[in-house]
Amino acid sequence: MARKDIIMMSSEELRRLSVIRKVIDKLIRQNKAAEVIGLSYRQTKRLVARVKEEGDRGIIHRSRGKPSNRKIEDKVRAKVIQFYEEKYWDFGPTFASEKLQELDGITVNDETLRLWLVGKEKRDWQRKGRKHRKWRERKQYFGEMVQMDGSHHDWLEGRGPGLVFMGYIDDATGTAFARFYDYEGIMPAMDSFKRYSKRYGLPQMVYLDKHSTY
Q1: In a designed cystine with 91, which of 83, 96, 107, 180 is the match (CB 3.0 to 4.6 A)?
Q2: What is the per-residue pLDDT across 122-169, written as a single tens digit (0 to 9) for each?
Q3: Global pTM?
Q4: Hey, how many other C-beta atoms are within 10 angstroms of the C-beta on 73?
Q5: Which among 78, 95, 70 is positioned nearest to 174, based on CA atoms?
Q6: Per-residue b/e over 197-210, b at no fewer than 16 CB within 10 Å?
């Protein structure tokens, strides 16, 4: 009979724990850890907080041992992949999942979307002999490219008017900057970009969605 203080982990969880421990010991930065373990910056940040609070046990996935209650029908999966290929083919999974929710009303986890796309590419490659498409690699240096986007949401949770979150993320480092505005338009875009540039300098490239403002 196993002792209660023994923690059973998969090889992937052990690998992630090793990387998270390096973040806690300040040997690597969180954005680099996210790249190594294949999670978003936000997911990695949550893992770091859980391991700090719960110890090694915090690395274990919350759904382990429980039946999945988020199974999505195949037709929804097919629709998501269709939208991605038609409208978001040059977006990473995290950015694409945000746009699917904002513009198409479809909520899908960015990691789930990543697995769906990788699985589709693998099947296409086996069927057609097509070369597997790699994800666009991040820029190497701060300021090479910044992603800019406006997000509409009830940020005040009914306690005030709806606002637009104008956000900027440096592609290489994950450095973020954001401000709230009453609407998404030319003036908020220019004002937020001016403020970002004053703080961090002009980026070499700005990555935008297809909103008419831009």
Answers
A1: 96
A2: 455 444 554 445 556 778 888 889 988 888 888 888 888 888 888 899
A3: 0.38
A4: 8
A5: 95
A6: eeeeeebeeebebe
